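Reading is simple: each integer encodes one residue's backbone shape. The lines below illustrate:
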Amino acid sequence: MVSVIIPTYGGAAGIKKVIESILVQTYKNIEIIVVDDNGKGTDNQRKTIKRLKKYIDEKSIIYIIHEKNLGGSSARNTGAKVSKGDYLMFLDDDDTVSNDKIENQVKALQDVGCKYGIAYCSTRVFYDNKLSNIIKVKKNGDILYDYLLGKVYMGTGTALMVRDAWESLGGYNESFVRHQDWEFFARVLDKYDAIAVDNVYFNRYITNRNLPQNIDLTEKYADHYIEFLKRYPFHIPNRQIRKVINMNNSRIALCCIREKQYKRFFKVMSKYDNIVQAYSSFVRFMLLVCFQKLIGRKS
């Protein structure tokens, strides 16, 4: 069985779309678990249950309500803990997937050895419902370093994982408000190999609802992720982790420039080991961003 876990918060308008994309899967041994993280009795919770009434009445989904908003990581863990599947797939409430995604990812994992804990697929990215990019994937095996550097794209909904992988890692880190998937997949890929299924099975929709609302929050969430990178005992060399940390500092620095916060930019640059490394790393990151915009990301 495959358990599909969908946390929802303020996403009542689009949630039927993601559920319908699961109900038409060619792989039929599926359970769908919706975890409502709006908070019991809130306007958004009432809107959500109204939208889901048909599926609840037909027992097409398992519907769980959090008493209060606990965050995406907690909602995913809640769903996983009650699930029964041998495989887990996590989707956001505004994602959709192709009807043969699960069948082909299950087959891919069954065809490889037990070292492989996760399968991931190519992605269509939409900004405000307009196709912006197609991200193709092809790298297999130990892809941790490439993933941390952003050379491999593995969004939440691209992946299907073996249940043992989730359980062995203790699920999502509930201290993460943002970048939950970055942190979780980093730990998964540190322990397990990944298999790429290069077909475009996943559709990611990005709107203002998905993004931090100001540079303060952007830096706060990024710093929390960087602290995780510094502490976690990855199997790759420390020099590679330092390079990953520098890249993430460059990401914050770029946000500062976009927001015209130049004093803050120089403060971020001071976090590097030395000034030459800081600016060379930032220039490389800028070139990578420009390159990705020109040709689309491929991994």
The chain has two domains: 2-210, 215-295. Residues 22 and 79 are 16 Å apart (CA to CA). The first strand starts at residue 2 and ends at 8. The beta strands are 2-8, 30-36, 62-65, 87-90, 96-97, 116-127, 130-135, 159-162, 193-206.
